[in-house]
Design brief:
This protein is α/β, with parallel strands linked by helices. It contains 13 helices and 15 strands. Bound molecules: ligand ISJ. Ligand ISJ binds next to α1, α2 and α3.
Amino acid sequence: MRDLKEIREEINEIDEKLIELFKRRMECAKDVGNYKKANNIPILNQDRENEILDDVLVRGGEYGYAAQLLFSNIMELSRALQHNIVGSGKEMKELIENSSPNIPYNKNTKVACQGIAGANNHEATLKIFPDCEPQFCKSFKDVFMAIENGEADYGVLPVENSTAGSVSDVYDLILKHRFYIIKSLDLPIHYYLASIPQANLEDIEEVWSHPQALAQCSDKITANNYKTLQSANTAVAARDVANSKRINLAAVCNGSAVKEYGLKVLAENYENRSDNTTRFIVISKKLYIPENAEKISLCFGLPHVTGTLYSVLCRFSSLGLNLTKIESRTMANKPFEYLFYLDFTGNVKNDEVTKLLCALSTELPEFSFLGNYEEDFA
Ligand SMILES: C=C(O[C@@H]1C=C(C(=O)O)C=C[C@H]1O)C(=O)O
């Protein structure tokens, strides 16, 4: 067996050559970039890349697939360099440069949220925009429509719960409308089991609430064998239980709904997990990027090329930006074709990040930059 020190010396020698060859290849890519700029030729040439990858697979022998992975990354970097030279994604750059850092707000600002008084959405809205009179909408879709029609300046929406997971309907609407996300808030959510004042815990047979709340409280609901019924939201459940006058009925709702609809608390902290938290976002037609923005959201479709998602993720991680969320949703009318929604840590004030977004905006189908915003914790 060879001595470790000796093997490492050989590796060092090889690496020295590899880095020189890599630099030479990047210089060629630079020349190609200048040629493409002068002749107005697109950066990506998929046929040429496929040819190289096919060749590498064969030549790589037992390391063929590993060699393909290496080369697809090298070509990704080569294209990134060329995008820089050509100045791709001008619109993206202008969009970011023209965004304002301050989110305008006073008590007449129109903020839309789904539900009725006392719903979690209402609570989140008041935390983000204190003193506002929310415009209550029937559905999440109506919140998006209110922004679309200019009836509201901002919309507050739940996107994810720590126990029950993503609110998929909201992600579908984000991908459809592509408004900007300008803020997020993580709100701890605690639930009560609440009934009309005449009822007692032993009387309860049936529980009403929003499906997300029923999922977040599923442990106790299942243990008690309660029948469940889905409501439009937790506050609607509270209101309907109050109006029903039935003593065998309870709602799973928050403290504001208990007060709002004069219910009696039968049990507190009804959620499965004491750290139950829901993440809300604020959407807007106009882009605002606060100075201390720390989260970047974007979405795109994937071209039918092996490894694209992987190479996109690599590009972010090479800048030290971490992926914190990924959602894939099927495209409308295109079964088994997906749109991806992603969150990364980072701020577009970093020039390299803007360059990356500019490059991706020209390379990926259906690409949208959805925002760069602060994450608040209540
Ligand atoms: C360098 C070029 O641009 C891109 C990058 C490639 C590479 O790094 O080998 C190949 C094809 C193009 O997608 C080129 O067109 O040759």
